[in-house]
Amino acid sequence: MVKFNRDSVVAIILLLLCGVLFYSSFDIRQPDYGVLMPSTWPRIIIAVLALLSSIYLIQSLRARPSEKIDDDLNICVDSFSITENKPGIMGFFDYWRNPIICFSMFFLFLITLPVFGMLIGGLIFVFTLMSLLGGWKPRKLMTHAAISILTVGAMWSLFTFVLGVMLPVGIIFNPFAL
Amino acid sequence: MIIENVISAFEVVFSIQTLALMTIGVTGGLIAGAIPGFTIAMAIVLTLPFTFSMPPEQGLATMVSVLVGGLSGGLMAGILTGIPGTPSSVATTFDGFPLARSGQPGLALGIGVWSSFFGGIFSAICLVTLAPQLALIGLEFHPRDYFMLVIFALTITASLAGKKLVKGLIAGAVGLLVRTVGEDDAAGMARFDFGSEFLLSGFDFIAVLIGLFAFSQLLSDVRDPDVAKQSLAERGTIDAKIEHLRALKEIGKRWPLVIRSATIGVFTGILPGAGGSVANILAYDQAKKASKEPEKFGTGTPEGIIAPESSNNAVEGGALITLMALGIPGDVTAAVMLGALLMHDVVPSPSFIGDNPVLAYSIFIAFFIATFMMVGLQSIILRVFVLVTKIRMYMLAAVILGFCSIGVFSLNNGEFDLWTLVWFGVLGFLMRHFGFPLAPMILGVVLGDIAELNLARALAISTEISPFFTRPWSLFFLIVAVFSALFPLFQEHRGKFKWTLFFLPFACFTVSVPLYLMGGVARPVIAVIVLGFGAYTLWKRWKSGWKLTAYQELGTS
User: Fold this and answer.
1) At B15, is the secondary structure helix, strand, or coil?
2) CA distance A43 to A58
3) Of B117, B380, B109, nearest to B244 (Cα)?
4) Does B465 map to a domain?
5) Whether pLDDT at A72 is above 60
6) Confidence band for A15, pLDDT divided at 50, 70 and 90
7) Cβ contacts (< 8 Å) between A130 and chain B: which residues?
8) What is the pTM assigned to this prediction?
């Protein structure tokens, strides 16, 4: 029986992506001039990518069970379960806790950027991320607050006053929004 | 004319503002290189937004100084803590750390610093002398040849992934595909925009680079909660004073080793995709093989520090040679430098040095000056390094992520670039996790437009496909691309299967054909030499009865 592993899943996702992009390449308008049509080069790449993904899929299906183990992380990949720590979904979140926190915080920072602006938003983002990753002890909080103010403040000042970049002000500190 | 341009370049580089920026650049590079997990590529990528508002000469000089500083910064962490600051200084720890632990950290650091200096100066000389010569060859290139050169660059970068060749090639293809999103340059038609006005403008490739490299690296660095809370100071002793005179005496006794290792570095840099991480191991291995006392390697011998440090600093000179002469980046850091040039509307090509002489000479001069600055600043940075090692990785990650957001926003003053940063950060993180190398994707993103442009130009001249396989330079790049793609298979099977005995001779025979077709005097002579070497290798193997041990006898393993 053919057993899918993590590489097989990635290969199938890549093949699906190729399919979607190839289909979407028919939406590219063709001008009446030029020899190389705007859709030709992307289609060449998609064809190559599809071929490589097929080879990758075949390789992953033919791989011996021992090769299905990720040496770097010692994770059993066949069932997508983490055997290093706790099993199941909780183990997954436990293992990937910090990257998920970083990604989620950055996502929140971007969503709230029009409201808080770069300075306040940046300060909140750096301070909260540091505290989530490093801990909430009062002494640590003081250090995190000091580092956030110094670094984000310095960087914001440098870009605003020295390099002349108009960073987002946000609604809270925007005098025209009041 | 040349003298006028050199004088103009000197005026730019020796202005107080540029020198101050270069000092900051070298200092920043040294600190960044000293922090494990903070790669040189990441430091260069993060410098890009600052250089946006500078004139190209000043911006590139700053980036070159970050590069030179970063290459040398890795040795501090490697020697004093046993943890290499960058992948380029992995081999330095093999002997640097034991020498430091034996009570001579000052000598170990001194040897590292001065070996880096001599390696850097050697490669700077190579850069100044070889780049214009290579550019002259590059002027012979037809758009077809250029297209095949890009394909070769992508293939060889992917082949460095070894057994993961298919993943490397997939990464390269994805990089090329990312670059096709948005309006195409030739006809202005929308591609893969899915009705979004943001996608119509395409991904800003600087945001893509920062996402793929910096963002994904930071996510990886803080993955382990315990490691994220650790500081470097907990891992080793860091109290030392550099012993310059003793170090210079030790290096003086071994100058052929410096030259050999630096040469390895320059040639590794010229090869697309192979950077300092390959060169330092290669030079260390060669130094050990050539040494009269190989058993001393790993115990704290000066040769074990001289070889990797002089080679890794020489790499960038080599990488810049191909970048400035052909417009093809030698490694990821050179790819970011190419990005910086494109940001300033300067397109590197064989005519780059001729078209932008002041900029080209500014890069040459900045490379020299930064190397001198590096030696002077190492002693001061050593004290800063003590402070840096007290910083926890999670703090650094949070601050750098905050900085990334400000820097990326400043590229186009738009929030879309920030979304590009985060999505490509996650993509880079997943690629690292699933074992896909990032270097081919970076090269794909950077070279995508160049490949398409040259393909369009080639087809505009003639719609025939056959010249891609019959023009000498195109054929040459195609052959080396095929053999570089097959190289991981050869490496895996050599000594096990008989076909591997024919790999090298066959490669020599096929490469000699386009070399001979190029005409002139020198190239047919080289073709005959390559052909002769292939025939000699084949004859030796026939004499030994086609034994699979032939690799050890020929020293080709």
Assistant:
1) coil
2) 22
3) B109
4) no
5) no
6) very high
7) 394-395, 398
8) 0.81
φ, ψ of residue A70 in degrees (nearest 5): -75, 110
| Distance between CA atoms of residues B334 and B345, nearest Å | 17
Distance CA B419, CA B410 (A): 13
> Number of folded domains in chain B?
2
- Residue B553 banded pLDDT, cuts 50, 70, 90: very low
* DSSP, res A67: G
Q: Do B394 and A133 touch (CB under 8 A)?
A: yes
Burial per residue of B190-224, b for 16 or more beta-carbon CB atoms within 10 angstroms, e otherwise: bbbbeeeeebebbbbbbbbbbbbbbbbbbbbbbbe
| Min distance A178 CA to chain B CA atoms (Å) | 23
Interface predicted TM-score (ipTM):
0.85
Percent pLDDT > 70 in chain B is 94
Q: Residue B366 gets which letter from DSSP?
A: H
* Chain centroid to CA B196: 35
d(CA A151, CA B4): 43
Residues shown for chain B: 557
Q: Where are the alpha helices (DSSP H) in A35-157?
A: 40-62, 88-95, 97-134, 138-157
Whole-angstrom CA distances from A69 to A6, A52, B55 are 10, 22, 50
Q: Which residue of A has its CA nearest to B51?
A: A163
According to DSSP, the residues that pair with B66 across neighbouring strands are none
Distance (Å, rounded) from C-alpha B267 to C-alpha B315?
7
Contacts of residue B184 in chain A, CB cutoff 8 Å?
38, 41
Nearest to B275 by CA among B434, B490, B481, B123: B123
Has residue B387 been placed in a domain? yes
Separation between Cα atoms, residue B125 and residue B229, nearest integer Å: 43
Residues B450 and B504 in one domain: no
Q: What are phi and psi of A75, to 5 degrees?
A: -110, 135
Distance, in Å, from the CA atom of B256 to the CA atom of B33, rounded to the nearest integer, reads: 27
Cβ pair B390, B85 in contact under 8 A: no
For residue B423, give its domain range.
Answer: 2-84+92-233+245-455
Q: Which two tokens stand for residue B34?
A: 């000293």
- The helix/strand/coil state of B191 is strand
What gap in Å lies between CA B113 and CA B515, rounded to an integer?
Answer: 41
Given a contact cutoff of 8 angstroms between Cβ atoms, the answer to whether B70 and B86 are in contact is: yes
Q: Has residue B47 been placed in a domain?
A: yes
